Amino acid sequence: MKALRMFLQALVVLALAAGTTMAQDKARKQAEIRNAAKTALERFYKADPKLKDAVAKAPGYAVFTTYGLSFLIGGAGGSGLVHDNKSKKDTFMNMAQASAGVQLGASETQVLIVFRNQKAMQTFIDKGWEFGAGGGASAGTGSKSVGSGGGENVIADASFYTLTKTGLEAGGAVAGTKFWKDKELN
To answer: 16-53, pLDDT tens digit by residue?
Structure first.
């Protein structure tokens, strides 16, 4: 009986330790995403200073960092957050992209979505987005990017901006992108 009680106490201690470790890991991952978002915003503001005012006046915005590889078929994935300017709340999200076409490359890309209204932002958080895209050519190293892979696209009730941080991409493709809420980090 005493051995069973000690065993159960050990299980409780292990469960508490595991819970603490998981909470610390969650906080670390959230901090990494917040830092990446802050760095990305600084790059967007440097590339187009008018964006700082647009982001500040918007109900909210989303920032993602993605990593991709393509050779005829391609894929990219990443993580980011949606920031509600009114409540100051961050919602952590993931994204994935698949593409097919005449394409070749590898890159790290940063994405900024500036929402025009609260409903568009909340729909993005609750349901995510799926959409298709075209192609172009872009290159980036460190803090520079060139080509048609950067710029603005207008989506219903939001503006969508991209910057290629590092890598080289060329070609044209049909692509689909999906955004969804990260269940582990929220």
So the answer is: 444 445 557 999 999 999 999 999 999 999 999 999 99
Residue 92 has phi, psi (to 5 degrees) of: -85, 135
Compute the residue count for the chain: 186
Q: What is the pTM of this model?
A: 0.74
Contact call for residues 171 and 147 (beta carbons, < 8 A): no
DSSP secondary structure of 114-168: EESSHHHHHHHHHH--EEEE----EEEETTEEEETTSEEEEETTEEEEEEEEEEE
Kindly write down the DSSP assignment for every residue of 159-178, as one continuous string.
EEEEEEEEEEEEEEEEEEEE
For the record, the structure tokens of 166 come out as: 């590092």
Q: Kindly report, residue by residue over 78-134, the tens digit of the pLDDT.
A: 999 999 999 999 999 999 887 776 666 777 889 999 999 999 999 999 988 766 655
For CA atoms 167, 152, 34, 82, the dihedral sign is negative
Tokens representing 26 are: 């969650």
Q: Closest Cα partner for 129 from 95, 87, 161?
A: 95
